[in-house]
Amino acid sequence: MKVKYSPESIEDLQRVVEFIENKNAYAARRAAIDIQEGVQKLKDFPLIGLPVPKASDPEKIRDIYISQFTVRYLVTSEVIYILRVWHGKENEKNL
After folding, report:
1. Given strand 69-75, what is the order of strands in its sheet?
2. Residue by residue, what is the 3-state secondary structure of the chain?
3. Are 64 and 49 in contact (CB under 8 A)?
4. N or C end of the chain: smaller count of CB under 10 Å?
5. Domain boundaries in the chain?
6. How do residues 4-30 score in pLDDT, each as one tens digit?
7. 1 touches 71 (CB < 8 A)
8. What is the pLDDT of residue 42?
9. Do the beta carbons of residue 85 and residue 13 sit within 8 Å?
């Protein structure tokens, strides 16, 4: 399986890393690595995340929790699309 990032998820990652980097550069680097490693696991285990009940198709749109972050993704037969990324203290509705 391939993994592709939506433009919104790339912006999310940049926002999160920059926010953390202002406080601790090492923690920002660690967060970026943790998220990347967690996303890579989806290649082998695409259904590891939890279904999103409010999604139109909960079996295809899922959330995986990586450290303090939520990664929302869409599973298709060929590609996993990373849709959004946010920190647990952020409000998902504001994304």
Report:
1. 2-5, 79-87, 69-75, 61-66, 50-51
2. CEEEECHHHHHHHHHHHHHHHCCCHHHHHHHHHHHHHHHHHHHHCCCCCEECCCCCCCCCEEEEEECCEEEEEEECCCEEEEEEEEECCCCHHHC
3. yes
4. N
5. 2-89
6. 999 999 999 999 999 899 889 999 999
7. no
8. 96
9. yes
Place of tokens 């990586």: 66
Say what the pLDDT of residue 12 is.
95
AA identity, residue 86 = W
Q: Which residue has the tokens 């298709």?
A: 76
Give the mean pLDDT per block of 10 residues along the chain (95 residues): 96 92 92 94 95 92 95 96 90 58
Tokens at 45, concatenated: 């285990």
Looking at the domain 2-89, which fold is it?
YaeB-like fold (3.30.2310)
User: In sequence order, what are the residues at sequence separation of 6 or more whose Cβ sits closer than 8 angstroms to the Cβ of residue 2?
Assistant: 43, 78, 79, 80
